[in-house]
Design a protein that fits this description.
Radius of gyration: 30 Å
CATH superfamily of the largest domain: Aldehyde Dehydrogenase, Chain A, domain 1
Bound molecules: NADPH dihydro-nicotinamide-adenine-dinucleotide phosphate
Strand order of the largest sheet: 14-15-16-13-12-17-18
Structural class: alpha/beta
CATH architecture of the largest domain: 3-Layer(aba) Sandwich
Helix content: 25-40%
Distance between the termini: 59 Å
CATH topology of the largest domain: Aldehyde Dehydrogenase, Chain A, domain 1
Oligomer: single chain
Number of strands: 26
CATH class of the largest domain: Alpha Beta
Strand content: 15-25%
Number of helices: 21
Largest sheet: 7 strands, mixed
Number of domains: 3
Length: 680
């Protein structure tokens, strides 16, 4: 009997009932497994996830980030198992690398992003304190807390690993559990990664479940704290978005669907730039056999340059070796399934009604380097050309999800913009231009139609990650046809799984909530200088009020000579008198240096190093004869994890610095960052 792929349901691996959908090997056509989720208990999955969500929410951001990093390392140790399964989806080793190792890289990147950019807290406070009152006793910040629900991720067949992990990383980091539902084609690979992740024991029970098969009545079990994301066809996405329960419970539905992405060769492109354009288009057509949501489907070329570009494209595409990726020299594998093959054939026929096929297509026989080419889902690289793009809506609206692209001439920038807009919104466009050429006006106009713009000139080309690579730091999504969603984009993605709440309070209450001292909150003073205290001994809100210092002309002259900064406002009495200040003023950097002289405790102690300064503002000038004084307040403490047992235990302490003059006016304010030794 054919193997049925199991789902992980409320802590158990279970098979669905009845006959499933048969999945075949993309290269050989051999039957692999069946997929069905019939009879699986979706309500139990949701309840189990919510239980698991409590453990995730109880972890801090840094704990979740460490969990993710360890998980990525664990999965990477098993990568060859995943490559073996990836081959059955028709992927070449390079295609598999993008999916598998690209997925793990996304976990690593998200982990370090969170450890670097977020405090080790359970909730996230956004924005600086927003004062809302005259005396400073009332203000606000925005707070983000994990949603106590479950994130349901419905994924496409083309990236069984990356597609899951790019959504899972921000979900888990936010403190939310996930139920993933891979596409039936390729589900075995996703399931193997989930199995490996669960077997590692690194995730809390309930944090991750998988449905192999349909979602049954899952949507009926969801409520106002849940989130649904979808990647796939616009048809399915639009249908799911209309689910009445999503509407009734305001369940966020993020969609990433068909996208007829463009590559644009800018007018006046020289030979080297044309070569870049050709390289990018061919790469996008052939990587993953063009089964990429970001692949270039429309290649716009100035009419005069079209013949040359067309010849170069045809020459390069002629060198592609289509076949079994396991065979030496094969550069492009088959499509993922016979279903996809049928879909691509159908879409190419639609395109061919408004464009002419220059190479490929299925009307002619084509070479395939495989044992049993008739059984595999092979489709050749297919380039079309449409000479009347304005009158040909199908070329702008048809996503043939395979190695298919249409060449389109344009006569002016205005016409180009109108043609691009006929795509009704895309994930990405590449703009390819000569070194030094200014394309800013074009880029500004393209922005509204795209989630990402890849500006390719000979300088960026040397190090570019390419048109087709969505990166964890950058937004992946797009308007209109592309689904209107937004994934990744650094911490933005984490925030999609959290609720943002405006919190209005006194500075003291905000300090308690944020564990970060807020201006105006109570302070404590101690006879012991804060620089003599170990990390554990310092309290947030601990304040040092320093001695005073009167600034003299000698100070300014000495500082000017020492630093070499003889700017007229400090050193030229006549020019300074005519300046905004009306007289000579101290250098801002002198004020900062003098402030350090006032608050530093000079003897060796637990403060290891001062490693930076943030938010420096000079507010009032300091004139000769003014007297300054510093308030140094312990603002925030973050313990640093020890990388090796030999590392000195330590933490980062952020100090709020306020320098005031004799009239109690703020003259400078900033934060300084120090490393402070911990006792253990
Ligand atoms: P589908 O939209 O059919 O499927 C996408 C995901 O949705 C799959 O996991 C699928 O599961 C699931 N799904 C389908 N119907 C339902 C439903 N009623 N309820 C819940 N989940 C559902 O897309 P395919 O993956 O089959 O690809 C078809 C076409 O979509 C491609 O040829 C391509 O044109 C486009 N596509 C676009 C992508 C993009 O990002 N631009 C990415 C991938 C595909 P199951 O597989 O079990 O049916």
């Amino acid at each position: 009997m054919m193997e049925k792929l199991q789902s992980y349901v409320a802590g158990r691996w279970l098979e669905g009932e009845g006959e499933g959908r048969l999945v075949r090997h993309a290269v050989t056509g051999a039957p692999l497994y069946e997929v069905t989720s019939q009879g699986l208990d979706m309500a139990a999955m949701v309840a189990w996830a919510k239980q698991g969500g409590k453990s995730l929410a109880a972890m801090s951001f840094h704990q979740r980030a460490h969990m993710l990093k360890t998980l990525a390392s664990h999965l990477a140790e098993h990568k060859e198992e995943f490559y073996a399964l990836s081959a059955a989806t028709g992927a070449t080793r390079k295609d598999g690398w993008i999916d598998i190792e690209g997925g793990f890289a996304t976990l690593f990147t998200y982990s370090s992003l969170v450890r670097r950019e977020l405090s080790d807290e359970r909730i996230l406070l956004e924005d600086d304190w927003i004062p809302l009152s005259r005396r400073g006793g009332f203000g606000a910040r925005h707070m983000l807390t994990p949603k106590p629900g479950v994130a349901v991720h419905i994924n496409a067949f083309n990236f069984p690993v990356w597609g899951m992990l790019e959504k899972l990383a921000p979900t888990l980091l936010a403190g939310m559990p996930a139920i993933v539902k891979p596409a039936t084609d390729g589900a075995q690979l996703t399931q193997a990664v989930v199995k490996c992740a669960l077997a590692s024991g690194l995730l809390p029970e309930g944090a991750l479940q998988i449905i192999c098969g349909g979602v049954n009545d899952l949507f009926d079990q969801l409520g106002p704290q849940d989130v649904v994301t979808f990647t796939g066809s616009a048809h399915t996405g639009q249908q799911l978005r209309a689910t009445a329960r999503f509407n009734r419970c305001s369940i966020p539905f993020t969609m990433e669907a068909d996208s007829v992405n463009s590559a644009i060769l800018v007018e006046g492109a020289d030979d080297a730039t044309q070569a870049l354009f050709v390289r990018e288009v061919v790469r996008e057509m052939t990587t993953k056999a063009g089964q990429k949501c970001t692949a270039i489907r429309r290649a716009f070329v100035p009419r005069a340059l079209l013949p040359g570009v067309q010849d170069a494209l045809l020459a390069k595409l002629g060198k592609v070796v289509l076949g079994d990726p396991a065979r030496e020299g094969v550069t492009m594998g088959p499509l993922a399934s016979q279903r996809q093959l049928a879909d691509v054939r159908d879409k190419v026929e639609q395109l061919a009604s408004q464009a002419r096929i220059l190479c490929g297509g299925h009307q002619q026989p084509f070479a395939v380097d495989a044992e049993a080419p008739e059984a595999g889902a092979f489709y050749p690289p297919t380039l079309l050309r449409c000479d009347q793009p304005k009158e040909s809506p199908l070329v702008h609206q048809t996503e043939a999800f395979g190695p298919v692209c249409t060449l389109l001439p344009y006569d002016s920038e205005e016409e180009l913009l109108a043609l691009v807009a006929l795509g009704e919104g895309s994930l990405v466009a590449s703009v390819v231009f000569n070194a030094g050429q200014n394309v800013s006006a074009l880029v500004a106009q393209l922005g509204a139609w795209h989630g990402r713009l890849h500006l390719l000139d000979p300088v960026s080309a040397e190090e570019s990650t390419g048109h087709g690579s969505p990166l964890p730091h950058l937004v992946h999504g797009g308007p209109g046809r592309a689904g209107g969603g937004e994934e990744m984009g650094g911490l933005r993605a984490v925030k999609h799984y959290m609720q943002r709440t405006a919190v209005q309070s006194s500075p003291g209450a905000m300090t308690q909530l944020s564990h970060s001292w807020t201006t105006g909150a109570p302070v404590v003073e101690d006879r012991v200088h804060p620089f003599r205290k170990y990390f554990e001994e310092l309290a947030v809100g601990e304040r040092l009020l320093t001695a005073r210092r009167t600034v003299t002309e000698a100070d300014i002259v000495n500082f000017g000579c020492l630093s070499g900064d003889h700017f007229y406002a400090h050193m030229d009495k006549i020019a300074a008198a005519e300046s905004l200040f009306g007289e000579r003023v101290a250098h801002g950097y002198f004020v900062v240096s003098a402030a350090a002289g006032l608050f530093v405790d000079a003897a060796p102690g637990p403060v290891i190093a001062n490693y930076g300064m943030e938010g420096l503002r000079f507010i009032e000038p300091v004139k000769i004869g003014d007297t300054i004084q510093v308030e140094l307040t312990c603002k925030q403490k973050t313990r640093k994890p020890r990388r090796t047992p030999d590392d000195l235990p330590q933490g980062v302490v952020v100090w709020d610095i306020k320098v005031k003059n004799q009239r109690d006016q703020l003259v400078a304010s900033y934060d300084i960052l120090t490393l402070v030794q911990a006792k253990e």
